[in-house]
Amino acid sequence: MQDRFGINMKRYCRAHEAMLASVPPSREVMALHLEKLRWLQHERLVHLVVLVLTAVAELFTVDMAVLHPETNPLAAIVMLALAVLLAFYFAHYFFLENTVQHWYRLADDLAQKLKAPGNN
């Protein structure tokens, strides 16, 4: 299966969590989890930057609509489009932030299992 248009992050994260639950704890599993956690943190950072830039653009269009009424029709259309886009960015960033924090807990749990007697 090839991801020509990007990957489905929710499916990707669920698959990783299912893999963690199905394999015995090992240093290799921990290394893989930490690598994927770094990727997810990078994804979260990129989306934070995009979210902030979109919010700034939204504030600019609100400013244009309020302070410069002659641009009102165009500014209102752009403002509405950016508001919808911003809502989707907030939802996706919320998912990424909570998933990263959940994966921190998974890493802690995995580390505890590795420290238990009888493990690698």
Please give a structural write-up.
It contains 3 helices and no strands. With 120 residues, it is mainly alpha-helical. The chain has one domain (27-115). Helix 2 runs antiparallel to helix 3. The radius of gyration is 21 Å and the shape is elongated. The chain starts with 8 loop residues before the first helix and ends in a 5-residue tail after the last helix. 7% of the residues are buried. The mean pLDDT is 90.
Whole-angstrom Rg = 21 Å
List unreliable stretches of 5+ residues.
Answer: none
Number of strands: 0
Shape call: elongated
Number of helices: 3
Q: What is the average of the pLDDT values?
A: 90
Helix content: over 70%
> What is the total number of structural domains?
1
Percent strand equals: under 5%
What structural class do you assign from the helix and strand content? mainly alpha
Question: How far apart are the first and last residues' alpha carbons, in Å?
Answer: 33 Å
Q: What characterizes the major β-sheet?
A: none
Task: Please provide the ordered H/E string of secondary-structure elements.
Answer: HHH
Please give a handful of descriptors for the protein shown.
mainly alpha, single chain, about 120 residues, 3 helices, elongated
